[in-house]
Amino acid sequence: MSIRVNGVSKSFGTFKALDNVSLDVPQGTLLALLGPSGSGKTTLLRIIAGLEWPDGGRIEEDGEDITDRHARQREVGFVFQHYALFRHMSVFENVAFGMRVRKEPAEKIKSRVDELLHLVRLDGLGGRKPSQLSGGQRQRVALARALAIRPRILLLDEPFGALDAKVRVELRQWLRRLHDEIGMTTVFVTHDQEEAFELADEVVVMNHGRVEQRGKPDEVFDKPATPFVMDFLGNVNVFHGRVENGRAFWHGVPIAYPDYPHAQPRPARVYLRPHELDIARAAPAGAAPAIESEKSLPATVLRQTRTGPITRITCQPLEGGGELNVDLPTAAARELAFLPGERVTITPRSVRVFLPDPEYVI
Amino acid sequence: MNTTSPSSIPNRRARQRTVLPGFGLSAAITSLMIVGLVVIPLAVLILRAASLGPAGFLAAAWTPRARAAYAVSLGASLTAAIISSLLGLLVAWVLVRLEFPGRRILDALVDVPLALPTAVAGLVYSTLYVEKGWLGQWLVPMGIRGAYSRLGIVLVLVFVSLPFAIRVVQPVIESLDKDTEEAARLLGASKSQTFLRVVLPGILPAVVTGFALALARALGEYGSVVFISGNMPFKTEIAPVLIVSRLEEFAYAEATAIAVVLLGMSLSMLIVVNVLQQRLVRNAQ
Amino acid sequence: MTSKPRDAATASSPLGLLLIAGAVATVGLLIVAPLASVFVDAFSNGPRAWWEALAHDPDTRHAIWLSLTVAPVAVIVNTVFGVAAAWLVARFRFPGRSLLVSLFDVPFSVSPVVAGLALVLIFGRQGLLGPTLAWLAVKVIFAWPGLVLATTFVTLPLVVRELIPVMEAIGPEEEMAAVSLGANGWQVFWRVTLPNIRWALLHGIVLANARAMGEFGAVYVVSGHIAGATDTMPLRVEKLFQEYRTPASMAVASVLAALALLTLVAKVFIERQLETESKELEAARVPGADTDPSTGGLGK
């Protein structure tokens, strides 16, 4: 089942949750809607499920307009953020609910529920109440319940948001395998880029009710289309610089920027990822300036912070401006063994420049 | 839900904010009951009083006997509500903060006046305080007449209004942050200073709400008072009793006029206390 | 309400003892003593006299019968109303919603006598609908329907006020989940909503029933106080008292008082269930705590 969202808008009072959003989800795709809270991703998911009505625009399934079809008839499997399990029903009855209200025969329900509980690895827990389950188990009951009605698409709202870190990673990998097994068109909402990139075939980055970028995880990460995406993907050094004559200047360091050949200088924002920077010890005073190329920025080391395999070195450019983060593998950092206050030079391997408007990317 | 023609969609969407069913049915049942049982009867009452005209209304509602009844009603209700609020604060505090044998039973007994028919309360109170009653045999010789007196009215009104005063304050004391009190004590405040400056401002809005509810309940009370007050015009006759006796004389106009005054009293009383309470909450913040 | 640790040390200090004594005296003198004296007085001439006062007086028997038919009807009407109104207010946003909520409370601030009078002005012989009702030969005032209307009015807020906070705390997600799984309106209500609100509903019903059995002022006005016809139990208590038959009056009162005690026991039991459920709800809101690693994640 493919989904097409066509020019959908939705407001809550004066707040514009969705602003003319269009989106295609091909059959069998596992797609992530990624964005900060308030970006409209959950509203879009709920509109696809029929839990909210759009103010304008249409929703299609396999080319059929289902905008006005009630949620009850959409045959959508929806996993709620806090699972919304029926508190007073057993796990078995939770999963069976969709078939019970369709008045399916009891033995058919029994075998289907057992099959699903096996699929989500909850064999033998059918008699428990949701309150007797752990968060990860509740999540899987919610998934089994959504799958029980043999939905044509599966929608998950922050499926791992309420879980602790270890369970989250496990469930993520498991869900990916499950998707590969059953191949159902699946859309999930998340604010966690790691989750989106690890799990999804395609990522849609949303902000202020609009789609900022859509693409495969690698594309989005390597070629962010807008400053917002760059910012949101996080871990980025942002500086205000300028462009002129085919070059962008960052702290006086020139970077080739052929997209702007004009002589008239324009302000620009320069984005550098911490792991795309080289750092070296500056030559002692008086020594030959061999290491300092004209593409390097002199700076002072402020401090080092280790987060597992990565060590972050925070530097202060000599000519002022904001701090600059450089990420190195911890082993490499250990070898270099910088001390606070030491002089270093920083050389970007890759730089992105965004002009305020229109936006250019190199 | 049928798939309707596209032209009708925007309109329908504007109204429908949720996929949950049952808006129409629940709205129909609710408005039928509220309009039929609350709005229309009270509107008819007010319109009936208005149809008397200003002069007629005054003549019916402002007789010396009626004025005396309002005074008795107001005086007894205010007294009872104040007593209930003070005793309610005491009982609520003890129930929340102190542990002692029988606390749970005491907690449950507080609700008796909500469950006990007011007629039973009135009957019992009057037999307790008459000359030969359990308490009356001691109190009457001392000159305290708890039956057929204004004191009796206040007593039963305290009885019926006490649970309101307690139950509103109790959860607020429960939610008080004990750390703040301990901090105040550490800063050198005495127990009474801590109570007056730290605790009381926090619970005062609830006490006022409890007072308002107690007052509203007391102003309208009929069943218990009719047993104990003796219902002597100008002395122990409250407004609801006067309404009933006018009604029994088929003096509908007068009964209606007095009822509207009583209605106005309880509603304006509630508004005044509401405003007061909002101010208190604002000051506390 | 046992969530907070209480202060046992202060309780044994002089001030603590004084406060406890004050609270016990308040409840004891104002509430327990009267309640106890009902039963003492009712049985002062022996259980036999008590039984005869209840069973051998046809007017009293009729009053008991009338109370047992009026109160349940009023409670059922209010249950239907309470569920519908709570559903409307807790699940939908619409203009006039807060006005509606404040109207729910009006019967609490209107004197029952005034309410009764308002009904008389509509349904009485000289009332708005009087001629129509007379033509139809339907009697409302001084008859059973009037008693039901008056009782329904005074108990109107009790069920709905119990339900609204509980339904708002639970939230609409479970019902939305049921809809997206294909349930229709009644299926959502019977299978999801009702089981979730059952204790709050029962709490409201118990309170409404107690108030309905005991209502005096409003019923007094609309009943006409006709012995053997429109006297309910509380009205019978008053009539026997006015006739200087205090022992008989006390006998009827003791039945009502016993009912009140029963109500309290039920109330305490239900409140315990409600507390358990609200704790469960709280637990479900907290991000799933995977305390047991063997069941937390996925089995290997």
From the structure above, extract its key features.
heterotrimer; A: 362 residues; alpha+beta; Rossmann fold; OB fold (Dihydrolipoamide Acetyltransferase, E2P); 9 helices; 25% helix; B: 285 residues; mainly alpha; MetI-like fold; 2 domains; globular; disordered N terminus
Provide structural commentary.
- The complex is a heterotrimer of chains A (362), B (285) and C (300).
- Helix content of chain A is 25%, strand content 34%.
- Chain A has nine helices and 20 strands.
- Chain A has a six-stranded mixed beta sheet, sandwiched between helices. A five-stranded antiparallel beta sheet of chain A has the order 13-12-11-14-20.
- Chain A is elongated.
- About 1% of the residues of chain A have low confidence.
- Chain B is built from 14 helices and no strands.
- Chain B has 285 residues and is mostly helical.
- The N terminus of chain B is likely disordered.
- By secondary structure, chain C is mostly helical.
- Chain C has one domain: MetI-like (MetI-like fold).
- Helices cover 78% and strands 0% of the residues of chain C.
- In chain C, helix 2 crosses helix 14, helix 4 packs parallel to helix 9 and helix 13 packs antiparallel against helix 14.
- The longest helix of chain C has 40 residues.
- Chain C starts with 7 loop residues before the first helix and ends with a helix.
- The interface between B and C is large, with 93 and 100 residues.
Instruction: List the helices and strands of chain B in order.
Output: HHHHHHHHHHHHHH
How many structural domains in the coordinates of chain A? 2
Largest interface, with counts of residues having CB < 8 Å to the other chain, equals: B-C, 93 and 100 residues
* Rg for CA atoms of chain A: 25 Å
Taking the alpha carbons of the first and last residues of chain B, their distance comes to 49 Å
Shape of chain B: globular
Number of helices of chain B: 14
Q: Give the count of structural domains of chain B.
A: 2
Helix/strand structural class of chain A: alpha+beta
- What does the average pLDDT of chain A come to? 86
Question: Which regions of chain B have little confidence, pLDDT < 50, spanning 5+ residues?
Answer: 1-15
User: What do the pLDDT scores of chain B average to?
Assistant: 86
Helix content of chain B: over 70%
Radius of gyration of chain B: 24 Å
Write the layout of secondary structure elements.
The complex is a heterotrimer of chains A (362), B (285) and C (300).
Chain A: E1 3-12, E2 15-25, E3 30-34, H1 41-49, E4 56-61, E5 64-65, E6 76-79, H2 91-100, H3 106-119, H4 135-148, E7 153-157, H5 165-182, E8 185-190, H6 193-199, E9 202-207, E10 210-215, H7 217-222, H8 227-232, E11 237-244, E12 247-250, E13 253-256, E14 266-272, E15 277-281, E16 297-307, E17 310-317, E18 324-329, H9 330-336, E19 343-348, E20 352-354
Parallel strand pairs in A: 3-8, 3-9, 6-7, 7-8
Antiparallel strand pairs in A: 1-2, 1-4, 4-5, 9-10, 11-12, 11-14, 12-13, 14-20, 15-19, 16-17, 16-19, 17-18
Helix pairs in contact in A: 2-3, 2-4, 3-4
Chain B: H1 9-15, H2 23-50, H3 53-61, H4 64-97, H5 103-109, H6 112-115, H7 118-129, H8 136-139, H9 150-175, H10 178-186, H11 191-220, H12 225-228, H13 239-248, H14 252-284
Helix pairs in contact in B: 2-14, 3-14, 4-9, 4-11, 7-9, 9-11, 10-11, 11-14, 13-14
Chain C: H1 8-11, H2 14-42, H3 46-55, H4 58-91, H5 97-104, H6 106-109, H7 112-123, H8 130-136, H9 144-170, H10 173-180, H11 185-214, H12 217-223, H13 233-242, H14 246-285, H15 293-296
Helix pairs in contact in C: 2-14, 3-14, 4-9, 4-11, 7-9, 7-12, 9-11, 9-12, 10-11, 11-14, 13-14
